[in-house]
Amino acid sequence: MSDSTAAPARASSTLASRVHGTVRIVGTGLLGASIGHALRARGVDVALADTSPAQLRLAIDYGAGRAARDDDMPTLIVVAVPPDVTADVIERELAAYPGAVVTDVASVKLEPLTDLRTRGVDLTHYIGSHPMAGRERGGAISARADIFIGRPWVVCRDGETPASDLALVEGLALDLGAMPIEMTPEEHDQAVALVSHVPQIVASVLAGRFIDAPDESLRLAGQGVRDTTRIAASAPELWVQILDANAAPVVDVLDKLADDLSAVARALRDPETPGARRAVAEAILRGNEGVERLPGKHGQNRRFEQVVVMVDDTSGQLGRLFGDLGDLDVNVEDLRLEHSPGAQFGLAEISVAPGVMHRAIDGLQDRGWKIASTTND
């Protein structure tokens, strides 16, 4: 496929863009290629560059953009390379394109910024940023234009950042459907240590316990353990770099988590000790309170109720369930599916607004659906 095949998709787009001119994307992995797909859908000229010719050609073949040319004059440059070379690429791009605004999407913000300042690089037109989006699988083959929709996109400005540069980077986030949030690099790195980096370690360490587990034990695994360990499929090579670059904030959270786990372990070693059961109960209760603070749908703290419906594992059943809920004027706020090994049915956990809970249950039962359970979120 030639570079010119990208033109029809740009020409057919009807979506307006806040970003104009050419956007140069350096690095055509998951994030770089996904940004390319999303911008091209809005008619933006996307020029791709990568040190790997094979990776570059793959991203072009999938339609993420065209190959960069020597005569390109980009207005915006997005650096989407591994953390250990982010500072090097930012420095190179700032020098090669002094008229462009340069941002990066690395998951750690303080280390590359400190490195660049130490080198004496003019950072007037550099703004660090980080979309809180991704998938377990990487590479251009896994790229999708919609992975940024509704997700936070952290923008790290400073006092010297020109307003027009800030508007361009925030415009990029908005074009991709993300929600720009301004933070300092320090605030960002502490935040992602808690909500992203430590959860990755916990999921990986827990999943690692499955290696020597008996097959009979793993056959009992339900949706809970799958949810807890879903991100354990992430690439080790990338995470070694991320965790190395954000080591101090991660260690701080891990130390506190280790203390919490040790306290529960001490209580369970002798549950008859006065206060032991209370310690366990309060640990669970703190988890309840912590989950309540997580933003729900549309970033709200609003909670929903769940109806768990048994769905036969046959063609069209899930569509019929949605159709019946639509007829009942019940909006599906969220959905989770669970399958048990060997069972000929699945469990569809439907999240609904509390005010329609009883209508959903009664209406579904009238239509022949079996309600497995109901829960409060």
Automatic annotation (TrEMBL):
Keywords: Oxidoreductase
Coiled-coil intervals, chain numbering: none
Catalytic class of the enzyme: oxidoreductase
Record Gene3D superfamilies: 6-phosphogluconate dehydrogenase C-terminal like domain, NAD(P)-binding Rossmann-like Domain
Molecular function (Gene Ontology), one example: prephenate dehydrogenase (NAD+) activity
InterPro entries xrefs: 6-PGluconate_DH-like_C_sf (IPR008927), NAD(P)-bd_dom_sf (IPR036291), PDH_C (IPR046825), PDH_N (IPR046826), Preph/Arog_dehydrog (IPR050812), Prephen_DH (IPR003099)
PROSITE patterns given in the database record: PDH_ADH
EC number: 1.3.1.12
The keyword Chloroplast is assigned to this record: no
Domain Prephenate/arogenate dehydrogenase: 21-298
Record-stated family: Belongs to the prephenate/arogenate dehydrogenase family.
UniProt cross-references to NCBIfam families, sorted A to Z: PRK06545.2-3, PRK06545.2-4
Protein name per the record: Prephenate dehydrogenase
Species this protein is from: Microbacterium koreense
